[in-house]
Specification:
It is a single chain. The chain contains 13 helices and no strands. The protein is mainly alpha-helical. It has one domain. Helix 3 runs antiparallel to helix 11, helix 5 packs antiparallel against helix 6 and helix 6 packs parallel to helix 13. It starts with 5 loop residues before the first helix and ends with a helix. 44% of the residues are buried. One of its GO terms (cellular component) is plasma membrane. This is NADH dehydrogenase.
């Protein structure tokens, strides 16, 4: 009986596992460095995210009183496992997805939502007032940004007439950049990604000056490290999806690097330009505008295809 190592390599090394961990740390460094330079600061050294991760992993993990111990320890693992699994259906580094099937776009969107749900539950299972407020804000923001982000990714899927990420990536590479054809969807997708990951100015759920660290206030050591690593990994996957759908597809490592880093530059610039929004501004304003814009564009795409079929 021979042991097939391919699935293990896929899960542990590439496109999951070590590759995503290192890519997430590298993109965290680029994000922090770009924001620092835009703010006329020096920023971190290149190994700072890795040093922070190793430091947290080596620290003692304190279990606060009154928490549900099983849930408290499992939630960071669920968040990391979901992020790593989502990468299996995405063209990481410009290569074909490790696994693909009809409807994997919907599965990927749901997997990317597990991090936010885990963070909300992590704060809700404690008795700390700051964590509870942060959990409430996290889950509230989830409903405000998940729907527009999903609708923005459905636009290219409807244009390509498929729910498979690999097929949408191929369609985007064979046609005009969908950034030009669907500019509203691109904007909604990029802002929705920032809201999902609670990046400034949408960081009200973890506002340091108000509620310490939000839903993760009670976390330390390994649990905090895994949550932070999950956010870094989802940043890479989210940028890859937006680039693959709206920037002409991704078909080579150089293509992947140029387009995702370009998007990261835009994200860092947006973080620098705007001050943190209040939770009512983050939720109410974007829920109305973002969702309406995404729906309008979807209606325009459907009508355009219908009219095109009538003409041709």
């Amino acid at each position: 009986m021979t042991l097939n190592l391919n699935p293990l390599i896929v899960l542990l090394i590439f496109p999951g596992g070590l590759f995503l961990i290192m890519a997430g740390l590298a993109y965290e460094y680029l994000d922090r460095k770009l924001v620092a330079r835009f703010q006329n600061r020096i920023g971190p050294r290149w190994f700072q995210p890795l040093a922070d991760l190793l430091k947290l992993l080596s620290k003692e993990e304190i279990t606060p009183l009154g928490v549900q111990r099983g849930l408290f320890y499992l939630l960071p693992l669920f968040a990391l496992a979901s992020a790593l699994t989502a990468a299996l259906y995405v063209p990481m580094a410009g290569l074909l997805p490790a696994y693909a099937f009809q409807g994997d776009l919907i599965v990927t969107i749901y997997l990317l939502s597990v991090l936010t749900l885990s963070m909300g539950l992590a704060g809700a299972c404690t008795v700390d007032r700051f964590a509870l407020v942060g959990a409430t804000r996290t889950l509230t923001q989830l409903f405000s940004y998940e729907a527009p982000f999903m609708l923005a990714l459905l636009g290219p899927a409807i244009a390509a007439q498929t729910w498979q990420i690999r097929s949408i990536n191929e369609y985007a590479s064979q046609n005009l950049w969908l950034l030009i054809a669907q500019p509203i969807g691109f904007l909604v997708a990029l802002v929705g990604l920032m809201g999902k990951l609670e990046l400034p100015p949408f960081d009200a759920p973890e506002a340091e000056t108000e509620i310490v660290a939000g839903a993760l206030t009670e976390y330390s050591g390994r649990g905090l490290a895994l949550f932070r690593l999950s956010k870094d990994i989802e940043l890479v996957i989210g940028l890859t999806l937006v680039a693959a759908f709206y920037l002409g597809g991704i078909h080579s490592p150089l293509d992947f690097l140029v387009k995702t880093v370009g998007l990261l530059l835009v994200v860092a610039l947006l973080q620098t330009l705007f001050a943190r929004l209040r939770i009512d501004q983050v939720v109410g304003l974007w829920w109305r505008i973002g969702t309406i814009l995404a729906v309008i564009q979807l209606i325009a795409i459907v009508l355009g295809r219908y009219v095109g079929n009538l003409i041709f």
